[in-house]
């Protein structure tokens, strides 16, 4: 389970290493609303603001994934980083998850009074003003489009960066 921001790409090398060395399936689940589904996916982002700013809804999102995609007879290892550790501890309250769990690892856990921390206040504010979705679009676009024509370095498609590009400011 990812921490905040809940972007799975951050964990890619770690997860690939686990998969290679242990030879077991590895799944990662983003924090709901922090990542777009793959373009090939039939899934979309649910239009439900409560899903994105409520711990219980985030836990329910992870629970739905486990119950939908992880075979019930399969033992699972739950690893949670930061806020993801809080979600793991909440998932363990469910009887099915508890029975399936073989091991649980909490990496730098955020367990109590999370919403009172300065970092949590920042991310909760960003969630409320809708910052995460545009950020995801920008991060995602960095890997795919060609550079803009004004300076050959900007990577956000469909956006005129000429007023902010260094070459445009010098000219």
From TrEMBL:
<comment type="similarity">
    <text>Belongs to the AB hydrolase superfamily. LDAH family.</text>
</comment>
<dbReference type="GO" id="GO:0019915">
    <property type="term" value="P:lipid storage"/>
</dbReference>
<keyword id="KW-0551">Lipid droplet</keyword>
<dbReference type="GO" id="GO:0004771">
    <property type="term" value="F:sterol ester esterase activity"/>
</dbReference>
<dbReference type="InterPro" id="IPR019363">
    <property type="entry name" value="LDAH"/>
</dbReference>
<dbReference type="InterPro" id="IPR029058">
    <property type="entry name" value="AB_hydrolase_fold"/>
</dbReference>
<dbReference type="GO" id="GO:0005811">
    <property type="term" value="C:lipid droplet"/>
</dbReference>
<protein>
    <recommendedName>
        <fullName>Lipid droplet-associated hydrolase</fullName>
        <ecNumber>3.1.1.13</ecNumber>
    </recommendedName>
</protein>
<keyword id="KW-0378">Hydrolase</keyword>
<dbReference type="Pfam" id="PF10230">
    <property type="entry name" value="LIDHydrolase"/>
</dbReference>
